[in-house]
Design goal:
Structural class: mainly alpha
Radius of gyration: 20 Å
CATH superfamily: Ribosomal protein L17
Strand content: 5-15%
Number of helices: 5
Shape: globular
Oligomer: single chain
């Protein structure tokens, strides 16, 4: 029986699935949002949230665990330096899934290969560093009159 076995297999071997989810989470860390299928987003969400939890703990052992799971040291550095500190006051629920397309059924955005529903997986809080505001220019002397 398969009771309480929650792993989404996604039609792939375990090695392929783990590599694909690690790559998807690394893209999420790098670009702050990714567009993918609904099934992949739901599977990647749990991996991403576990990585943020490791990042919030911040020890060298947790860094090594994150690099071992993500296979990219650059992504792990970004996770520990930018993303995890942004969620320090949040207990869970670091990501959100936004469905693309219309309201229901056949009007939703669909993938080209298998017509799977397309979604955006992104971080909940806006963790992209804000650009400095442009200084306001003063009106010319002629306009002051």
């Amino acid at each position: 029986m398969r009771h309480l076995k929650r792993t989404a297999k996604l039609g792939r071997t375990s090695e392929h699935r783990n590599a694909m989810l690690a790559n998807l989470v690394c893209s999420l860390i790098e670009h702050k949002r990714v567009t993918t299928s609904l099934a992949k987003a739901k599977a990647a969400r749990s991996v991403a949230e576990k990585m943020v939890t490791l990042g919030k703990k911040g020890t060298i052992a947790h860094r090594r665990l994150a690099v071992a799971r993500l296979h990219q040291e650059k992504a792990a550095k970004t996770l520990f330096a930018e993303i995890a500190p942004a969620f320090k006051d949040r207990r869970s629920g670091y990501t959100r899934i936004i469905r693309l397309g219309g309201l229901t059924g056949k009007h939703r955005a669909r993938g080209l290969g298998d017509a799977g529903e397309r979604v955006i997986l992104e971080w909940v809080d806006d963790i992209i560093p804000a650009a400095p505001a442009a200084p306001a220019t003063e009106p010319k002397a002629e306009e002051k009159k």
